[in-house]
Design brief:
By secondary structure, this protein is α+β, with helices and mostly antiparallel strands. The chain has helices at residues 11-22, 60-74, 100-103, 108-122, 138-160, 171-181; strands spanning 3-8, 29-35, 50-56, 79-86, 89-96, 130-135, 164-165, 188-192, 199-203.
Length: 204
């Protein structure tokens, strides 16, 4: 983490000087004012320069992207990563050959990678981000599969007039099932069990 101490006639001037030396912009740094300085008599006598310490703040998204690249390289999967940020949600879209290795059975590998990336993005940081790691549109296809499954299982619960338990799945996938059935007047849904075995129950 690079940091620099700079001085100027005013705090703003000192900060500007530091930004030029660090070759960065104001939104990428943390500023600590060591001395606000003072103008002095007639702006000359007894004047004191302002002193600031400016350091480049850790860019958590770039760091997470590098972590993701290291993980995929260690798995011997050559990938390209497209990163997009919308408010406080960041999406990492992976593409390349052998992408199925990164997805794993029912997306378990991809979910594990997403969990780790989420930890990296939010480590020691004031700003909280939610994270999606996708691989060649897998999340969209999985969403359609889950919505279809929700409909079939709701029909089954209604037909047999008894509760139906689904397989364990992560919270964001359970949310898809809940959302898919929230307007279905024939059933209610709730989550049961303890992570990582928490699952949805569809009740007539």
């Amino acid at each position: 983490m690079r940091e620099i101490t700079a001085s100027g006639e005013t705090v703003e001037e000192a900060v500007q000087s530091a930004l030029e030396q660090l070759n960065t912009t104001r939104d990428h740094v943390e500023v600590e004012v060591i001395d606000e300085g003072k103008k002095g008599l007639l702006g000359v006598f007894g004047s004191k320069r302002a002193i600031v310490k400016v350091k480049i703040s850790r860019n958590q998204i770039e760091q997470a992207e590098k972590f993701l690249q290291d993980v995929t390289n260690n798995m011997n999967v050559l990938t390209e990563i497209a990163t997009s940020v919308e408010e406080n949600h960041v999406t990492f879209e992976l593409s390349g050959e052998k992408i199925a290795l990164l997805i794993g059975k029912r997306g378990q590998t991809l979910n594990a990678i997403q969990y780790l990336v989420h930890l990296v993005v939010n480590k020691d940081n004031k700003e909280y981000y939610t994270v999606t790691v996708d691989a060649e549109g897998y999340r969209g296809r999985r969403k359609e599969t889950l919505e279809s499954l929700a409909g079939k299982m709701a029909d089954k619960a209604t037909r047999l007039n008894k509760k139906v338990a689904l397989e364990p799945m992560p919270a964001f996938e359970r949310k898809i099932i809940h959302s898919a059935l929230q307007n279905n007047d024939n059933v209610t849904t709730y989550s049961d069990g303890v992570e990582p075995h928490r699952h949805i129950v569809i009740k007539p």
